[in-house]
Design goal:
By secondary structure, the chain is α+β, with helices and mostly antiparallel strands. It has 3 helices and 13 strands, in the order αββββαβββββββββα. 19% of the residues lie in helices and 34% in strands.
């Protein structure tokens, strides 16, 4: 592993995040540039520590499938998440997203994390709820042990350096500047004045479906 110019990383590291797709099911694309042009950072593991508010969540079953296929590597805290809970009954989630080297940039890293919007309470006069995603924290684990105390601070993160191994690792928090301080996710919500109509239609459809099921059971069932 080649030592990284940590002073340069301290001053020039940047992080950006972008929400892809539309609606409730999005991809959060995170990009990190360590700002060490001319240096080899191939020996470093880079991760983004992302704080997700109650309005969004990561599906642990979907993430497990992606990790099995080596598409996305991440650690969820807590690892048990109620994917059916509405926003007002949910809690914050902390995600450690492992970033992969960007083939187009020798000192750049990136990864995409699938996130899903939760249902919000019906509103009086707005059709969208706003969820703010703050810029993630950048964490780095390198084989160079002579890190600048002014730039890289030890981080209390008890996870391996890689999502594919269980070996222990000392992570360091990198001072960086976000391209944007936060990202905005807009989630459709219902209107309170529509609640009676929605309940009536739901009840009607439920009764109709139950009737069809009972009719089929009586006609084709074996008693």
């Amino acid at each position: 592993c080649v030592a990284v110019d940590v002073q340069a990383a301290c001053h020039e590291a940047t992080v950006s995040q972008e929400l892809l797709k539309e609606g409730f099911h999005r991809d959060l694309l995170v990009k990190v540039e360590l700002g060490v042009a001319g240096q080899d950072v191939g020996g470093c593991a880079v991760a983004a520590r992302i704080h997700l508010p109650p309005g969004v969540f990561v599906d642990p079953y979907e993430l497990a499938s992606l990790q099995q296929h080596n598409v996305t590597q991440a650690v969820l805290i807590p690892d048990v998440i109620d994917v059916e809970a509405p926003e007002y009954l949910a809690t914050d989630i902390l995600v450690l997203l492992y970033l992969e080297p960007d083939p187009e940039c020798s000192h750049c890293f990136r990864a995409a994390l699938p996130v899903h919007g939760r249902y919000h309470r019906p509103a009086e006069d707005v059709e969208e709820a706003v969820v703010v995603l703050k810029s993630p924290e950048v964490l780095v684990c390198c084989c160079d042990n002579h890190l600048s105390a002014e730039c890289w601070k030890p981080a209390q993160v008890e996870v391996p350096c890689s999502g594919r191994t269980n070996s222990p690792c000392q992570w360091y928090s990198v001072r960086h500047k976000p391209v944007h301080e936060e990202s905005i996710l807009k989630i459709p919500v219902g209107l309170r004045q529509h609640s009676s109509f929605v309940c009536a239609v739901t009840l009607l459809i439920t009764v109709l479906c139950c009737s069809l099921i009972l009719t089929a059971a009586c006609k084709y069932g074996h008693w």
